Amino acid sequence: MQTPRRFAPLILLPLLMTVGAAQAQSTGEAEAKTRAANIAAYPDAARALFGQKTTPAALRARAIGSYARGCLAGATALPVDGENWQVMRLARNRNWGHPELISFLERFASEVPKITGWPGLLVGDISQPRGGPMLTGHASHQIGLDADIWLTPMPRKRLDSDDRENMSAVNMARSDWRDVNPKNWTPAHTRLIKAAASEPKVERIFVNPALKVALCREAGSDKTWLNKVRPIWGHNYHFHIRLSCPPGMEGCQGQEPPNFGDGCGEELDGWVEKQHQAIFNPPKPKPGPKPKPKPPMSLDALPAECRQVLLAR
């Protein structure tokens, strides 16, 4: 996902909320049909070209471009099973990342039992083998420095392939989308997100506005770590970790340092209200024909080096 503006266009919010739910409960078969349709509709789009690559580019590891307009060379796969993590939705083949991110996730997962009391983490999408735009889902996750972490604790058993494709994540938002559901949200969730946000390499954490309400309430007197935690639509089943560009990596375009305070006041109230209205009182569609959808991103819209990444062995 891209760095959020103050508010997303109102008309998109119901769609975004629906997409978040669908991602949490999708099956491999349904996703495969959507991927095939997207390839057929725009076979030369960057998403089709990168989405069909199943192996990484055998090049020096580099995050190239920006989080929502770039690609990834020399990717490393997060093993699908670790002592303190399990990768979900394996059919997507999105457990690839820059080596810095993979190393971070392995270390952070090993600390989760001490932080939360959970056995470990369920890891969602990271990036494709060569990064780039995806055929389904995200706008970001293109340079191997973004990862989705489920808010459902890892079970003690090893999940089989069917569970990993079809098991639903847990919605943490309350039915009115103004706060968390106390039946699902626990203090361990706050401790986990605080620990991630406190990591020096982490540039941003993205959560649903309803979840940020709980984080602000439960943070206590020290809210400095909340500077990195930003509200955004969706993200009620998982939270999104974004690492900074590795030091000295040319061509990697990071974000500006967080300079907006803890975000727990009027700004958050606005996010919550806009989300509530979009779900429960969406605007009526304008009369007349629907505008044609914007074509997906072309390969020319990505940094020039991404052609080399795409063509590499």
TrEMBL record:
Any one Pfam family match given in the protein's UniProt record, by short name: Peptidase_M74
Keyword Hydrolase found: yes
InterPro entries referenced in this protein's UniProt entry, alphabetically: Peptidase_M74, Zn_M74/Hedgehog-like
Highest taxon, organism lineage: Bacteria
Span list, region Disordered: 279-300
GO molecular function: metal ion binding; metallopeptidase activity; serine-type endopeptidase activity
NCBIfam families listed in its UniProt record: PRK09429.1 (NF006947)
Listed name of the protein: Penicillin-insensitive murein endopeptidase
Organism of origin: Bosea lupini
